[in-house]
Amino acid sequence: MSEPAPPSSGRPPRRGAPSRLWVAAFAGVAALVAAGVAGLPALDRAFPPDIRRAEPSAVVVDRDGTLLRAFTDSGGRWRLPVTAADVDPRFIEILTAYEDQRFYEHAGVDPRALLRAAGQALASGHIVSGASTLTMQTVRLMTDARDRTPWRKLNELVRALQVERRLSKDEILTIYLNQAPYGGNIEGVRAAALAYFGREPARLTLAQAALLVALPQSPEARRPDRNPQAAEAARARVLDRLLQRGVITGRDAAEAKREPVPTRRRAVPRLAPHLARDLVASAPGVTRFETTLDADWQARLEALAGERVDLIGPNVSAAILVADVRTGEIRASVGSARFLDERRAGHVDMVHAVRSPGSTLKPFIYGMAMEAGLIAANTLLRDTPSTFAGYEPENFDETFQGLVTASEALRRSLNVPAVMLLDSLGAVRLAVRLQEAGALVALPPDKTATLAIGLGGFGTRLEDLAELYTAFGNRGRPVPLYSSGPRPPANHRLLEPRAAASIDAILAEMKPPRNARPGLIAYKTGTSYGYRDAWAVGYDARHVIAVWVGRPDGTPVAQLTGWTDAAPLLFDAFARIGIEPRPPRPVQTPTSELPPPLQRFLPRGAQREAESDLAIAFPPADATVALGGPGGERMPLTARVLGKRVDAWLLDGRPVDVRPGRRTAQIDVATGPHTLTVVTADGVSERVTFTVE
C-alpha cells in the first residue's frame, strides 16, 4: 500500500487567511484608540496635520453666479469650486447616511463603527465592513494617499482627530465635496454633476445623488461613461442601503433605479470663451471671476451668431456686444461665431479687434454740427459731386441725390453731406472728441486725422462703438462699458443734450431690414471700404447692441454690407433678448419754419447775399388759388420767383423735385392751405402762405 501523497503546496488557503494582517490591525486599532485619545494633545502639538486644500479650477461666472466658463487646473483636472451650501441638501443627506451616519456627532473617528468593524473582522476572519468616516476620507484626499496598509489606516485615524480639532464639520465637508474623485480628470461633486448630468449640483434627482455618492469609492471602475453597468450596480447598492436605513421609501428606490445612467461625459460650459480667456490670463492665481454677463443671453446670442454666418457665407464670422445703456454693464459678449472653428478664425475676439467703422460715426458728425449751430434736423444739404482739398467722396451706390434734409442725408448715409459738415467742423476736432469720450481712434503712424475719418478712415473697436452710442440714451454723455470689477469713471460728454436728442429722433426713423417692425429701435449701419466690415449699432430704452460681420483676416466678402448682413443680425439679437420700448421722440421743426441761416447749410467759404434780391411772384401771400382746368381736371401750380435763382423749392417744409437754378416750378398741390418756401444756393430764403380751392 502506497503512502499518501504529501499535501500540495498549491492548496487554497483557509477562508480569511489573506486578511490576517487586517484582522490583527483592526483588533489593535480598537485597543489603541483609548491611548491615542489620551495622548492626542501632546501628539497634536508635536505633529500638526497637513491641511491642504487642492487648487480649484478657475471659473468665470455671470451676474447671478451661473457658470460661464471653467478651466482645468495646472494638473489638467476639472475641479470646480463648491461649498456645501451650493449642493442639493438631499445629496448631503444621502452622503452622510451612506458613508458616515454619525458624521455630525463624532470627533473624526466613530468608535461604534470602529468596534463594530473590528468585531466583525474577528468573528468572520476577514474584513466585513470598514470604519472610515468622512473626516478620515477627507484626510486621505488631502494627503493623496493611495496605499491601504494598516499603518496608513492608523495614520488617517489620528489625523482625522487632529483635523476635527481645527476645522468645522462644514469645512471638512467642503474639502470632501471639492476633492472627491469621480473618474478620469474629474474631481469634486460640481465637476461631476456638470460632466455626467449637465447640471449644477444644487438640483439633483435621487438617482443622480445616489450615483455621485457611489462613484468616489471606486471612481475608475464605476465611471458611467466607461462602465455604465458597474455604475448602475453601485448606485443600486447605495439606494438599497438608504432604503434599509429608512432614508427613502421603496417607491423612491424603485423609481430611482429606473432612471437611466448617463453613458457619456458632457462638455463643461464654454460660454463667453474670449472674455473668459482674457479675464483668466489677466490675473494668474485668481480662481473665480465674477462678470456682469447674463448666461442665458450669452447662450442665445452665441447660437444666433452661428446660425447667421452659415447664411452669409464660408469663412465669415460675426461678433455681438450687448450693454446696459444706463450702467455700462456688458450683458453679452460674442467674440466670434464659433470659438473652435479654425476656418472662421474663431479664436479671434472681434469685439476688441481694430477695424474700419465705415459710416457708423456719421451720427456724431451731424450731432457736432447741430451743437455748433451749423444745421438743424431739416436743414437742406447738397449731395452733388464735390471736392474738398483734393478729396472727392462718393456715395455707396455711386449716385447723388441733390438737395436733401440733414435727417434724410443721415438716414440714407450719404457721404458728400457728411464730409461737407466735417470739413466745416474739422477732422481733428472729431477725432479728439471721440478719444475724449473713450473711443480708440487708430491712425497710421505719424498721420493726423483727415476728412476720410468721417467715412471710416481709421480703426476702432466694436466695444468702442457700443460705448459711443450709449450717449444717445444719456443726454449726450457715453457710459463706460465694463464686464467685471468696479464701475469705471464717467467719460467726457460727447454731444450736448439737445443735439443728442435730435440725432436720436433721426436714428429712430431709420428704415428697418426686411420683415422687421419699424420704430422699435434706433440704429445706424456702416460698411467699410472694399466690403471688409459690416456694422450695425442700435439701442432701445435700456440696451445697446453692436454687431460686426466679416472675415477676421480682413479679406473682402462680396456684397457684404451693414444693411444686408449686419442690420438683420442686430434686429434678431434684440428679438432674442427682448425690446424695451423707447420714450416718445421730439418733433423736428420743418425746414420752412427754421431761422433763415438754418434752412440751408452753406459750405465753408460761402457768402450770403442780401435777402432783397429774392421775391416770390406767384402765388401771392395769403392768396386763394384755383387750379381747376377747363375740363375740370386738376392743374399743377406754376410758382415763380423774381431776382436770384432758386436752388431749392419746399412745399409745406418738404423738398419739391425741381432742377436747381430754376425761377419757375410746376408743383402738384392738394386742396387746402399750404406754405411755399424757396432757398437760393447761398442760403437766402423767402416764403408765402396760400390756399388752393
TrEMBL record:
Domain Penicillin-binding protein transpeptidase spans what residues? 319-540
Q: What class of enzyme is it?
A: transferase
* Keyword Transmembrane among record annotations: yes
* Superkingdom of the organism of origin: Bacteria
Tell me the GO molecular function terms.
carboxypeptidase activity; penicillin binding; peptidoglycan glycosyltransferase activity
Q: Under which EC number(s) is this enzyme classified?
A: 2.4.99.28
What are the alphabetically sorted keywords of the record? Carboxypeptidase, Glycosyltransferase, Hydrolase, Membrane, Multifunctional enzyme, Protease, Transferase, Transmembrane, Transmembrane helix
Cite the Glycosyl transferase family domain residue spans from the record.
68-242
Pathway(s) it belongs to: Cell wall biogenesis; peptidoglycan biosynthesis
Region (Disordered) location: 581-600
- GO cellular component terms? outer membrane-bounded periplasmic space
Give the UniProt record's GO annotations in the biological process aspect.
Answer: peptidoglycan biosynthetic process; proteolysis
Record bears the keyword Transferase: yes
Q: Which reaction does it catalyse?
A: [GlcNAc-(1->4)-Mur2Ac(oyl-L-Ala-gamma-D-Glu-L-Lys-D-Ala-D-Ala)](n)-di-trans,octa-cis-undecaprenyl diphosphate + beta-D-GlcNAc-(1->4)-Mur2Ac(oyl-L-Ala-gamma-D-Glu-L-Lys-D-Ala-D-Ala)-di-trans,octa-cis-undecaprenyl diphosphate = [GlcNAc-(1->4)-Mur2Ac(oyl-L-Ala-gamma-D-Glu-L-Lys-D-Ala-D-Ala)](n+1)-di-trans,octa-cis-undecaprenyl diphosphate + di-trans,octa-cis-undecaprenyl diphosphate + H(+)
Task: Give TM segment ranges.
Answer: 21-43
Q: Where is the Penicillin-binding C-terminal domain?
A: 606-690
PANTHER family in the record: BINDING PROTEIN TRANSPEPTIDASE, PUTATIVE-RELATED, PENICILLIN-BINDING PROTEIN 1C
Which family would the database say this protein is a member of? In the N-terminal section; belongs to the glycosyltransferase 51 family.
Name used for this protein in its record: peptidoglycan glycosyltransferase
Origin species, per record, is Acuticoccus sediminis
